[in-house]
């Protein structure tokens, strides 16, 4: 059999086993592949084993004892994902979000996403109609979706394989373009704009790059099975891409204290990810949130209404009063014009 078929059969055998499989048993199951001389068979199996490990297959060798024999075994807890246990309503929301991303025309891992949507439909127990929703991309000119889609797929693969990329980048801070070699750590989508975060060899630091500003892209194809870099263990996309309006890195970080009451109290964890919550009076909570853009949080608080109150610091309270006053003034002017 060819190598791909042998690898798949090997995976099936190991997953079906209830106890470690010895090297002798493996040779019995694959006489045409692991037969012949001992050295040749062991070399072939070592290559297959290395490929399984590279693919993320949790294969380990255990030393036997009185209760268990020597052999290869799969860590099932590491291999199988935990049960999601989502309600039908949650499945519907997830399906709608995935469908919107797929319809955007520029989403990395499109084949994987389409496969996941089919699985959601299967577990929902019924045929789910494709929602008429679409995730719009910001800063993307008409006709540019296909180009963005191709680059996203390239970057997606480069991030997964940890291969450096050469890119021609048009920065808004300077005229013309620059050549960059980047170790891509991850991709993030925020408000319709895709951002690449990685180590820039030109700047010798972590940098963010808007994908729609990449003019040319080339992924390193040398030694495709060997990573070019390691992503630092403490790396976090959230530290470099602002997912929420108060996370833009315009100012030094400050802690803002909020008081949430009414229906907002029960939704505080979802409304303010990263906040430290503590109970206040009955039916209310206090939230302490690290903020690097106070104005962004104040606009968000105004949208939440009177059940959200800013308790400190004074700088944040002052900005909230200023914004609220401008809103009232604008509405007063509009009413005056209507009356006239």
TrEMBL record:
Question: What InterPro entries does this protein's entry cite?
Answer: CBASS_pafABC_assoc_protein, WCX_dom, WYL_dom
Pfam families (UniProt xref): WCX (PF25583), WYL (PF13280)
Q: Where is the WCX domain?
A: 253-327
Domain WYL positions: 152-219
Q: What is this protein called?
A: Transcriptional regulator
Query: Can you name the source organism?
Result: Myxococcus virescens
The beginning of the lineage is:
Bacteria, Pseudomonadati, Myxococcota, Myxococcia, Myxococcales
């Amino acid at each position: 059999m060819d190598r791909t078929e042998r690898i798949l059969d090997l995976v099936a055998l190991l997953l079906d086993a209830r106890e470690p499989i010895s090297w002798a048993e493996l040779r019995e199951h694959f006489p045409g592949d692991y037969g012949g001389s001992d050295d040749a068979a062991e070399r072939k199996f070592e290559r297959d084993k290395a490929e399984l490990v590279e693919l993320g297959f949790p294969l380990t060798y255990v030393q036997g004892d009185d209760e268990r024999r020597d052999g290869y075994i799969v860590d099932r807890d590491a291999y199988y994902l935990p049960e999601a246990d989502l309600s039908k309503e949650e499945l519907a929301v997830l399906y709608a979000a995935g469908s919107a991303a797929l319809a955007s025309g520029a989403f990395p891992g499109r084949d994987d996403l389409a496969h996941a949507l089919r699985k959601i439909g299967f577990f929902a127990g019924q045929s789910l109609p494709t929602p008429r929703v679409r995730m719009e991309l910001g800063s993307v000119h008409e006709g540019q979706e296909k180009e963005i889609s191709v680059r996203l797929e390239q970057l997606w693969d480069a991030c997964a394989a940890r291969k450096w990329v050469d890119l021609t980048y048009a920065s808004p801070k300077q005229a013309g373009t620059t050549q960059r070699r980047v170790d891509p750590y991850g991709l993030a989508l925020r408000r319709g704009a895709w951002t690449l975060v990685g180590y820039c060899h030109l700047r010798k630091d972590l940098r963010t790059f808007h994908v729609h500003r990449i003019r040319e892209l080339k992924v390193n194809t040398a030694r495709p099975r060997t990573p070019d870099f390691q992503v630092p263990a403490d790396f976090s996309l959230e530290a470099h891409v602002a997912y929420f309006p108060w996370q833009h890195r315009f100012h030094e970080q400050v802690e803002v204290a909020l008081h949430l009451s009414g229906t907002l109290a029960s939704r505080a964890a979802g409304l303010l990810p990263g906040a430290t919550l503590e109970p206040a009076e009955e039916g209310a909570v206090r939230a302490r949130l690290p903020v690097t853009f106070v104005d962004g949080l104040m606009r968000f608080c105004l949208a939440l209404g009177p059940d959200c109150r800013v308790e400190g610091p004074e700088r944040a309270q002052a900005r909230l009063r200023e914004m609220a006053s401008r809103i009232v003034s604008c509405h007063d002017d509009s009413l005056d014009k209507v009356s006239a």
